[in-house]
Amino acid sequence: MKPLLSRVESKKVDKAAAMLKVLAHPKRLAIVDLLGKEDKMTVTEIYRSLDLPQAIASQHLITLKDRGILSSFKVGTKIYYSLSIPKLLDVIDSLEDCCDAI
């Protein structure tokens, strides 16, 4: 791992902070965690799994996709979402470990 000073001097820190802001919402974090367990899911599968209104789930999916965290593809009339950055699951696991330690 690079020393903190060299990471702070780069634009990567700004990008990381922006990504963490997107993930800071509990529902978006839940979507990322869910898609980490599944290869791909439709909007319907996601909102039903998380017991969310469809419109709310769609808004969160769009936000995550716009930030490059999710990718999507269409098959017929269905849009499937998948995780673009699987390493984010390590971040979620680390945060969960930190919360358990508190």
UniProtKB/TrEMBL annotation:
Start and end residues of each HTH arsR-type domain: 8-102
Organism, as annotated: Hymenobacter aerilatus
Database matches in InterPro entries: ArsR-like_HTH, HTH_ArsR_DNA-bd_dom, Metal_resp_trans_reg, WH-like_DNA-bd_sf, WH_DNA-bd_sf
GO terms of molecular function: DNA binding; DNA-binding transcription factor activity
Entries under SMART domains matching the protein: HTH_ARSR
One Pfam family in the UniProt entry: HTH_5
Keywords, comma-separated and alphabetical: DNA-binding, Transcription, Transcription regulation
SUPFAM superfamilies found in the cross-reference section: Winged helix' DNA-binding domain
Coiled-coil spans in chain: none
Translocase found in the keyword field: no
Keyword DNA-binding: yes
Transmembrane segments: none
UniProt-recorded name of the protein: Metalloregulator ArsR/SmtB family transcription factor
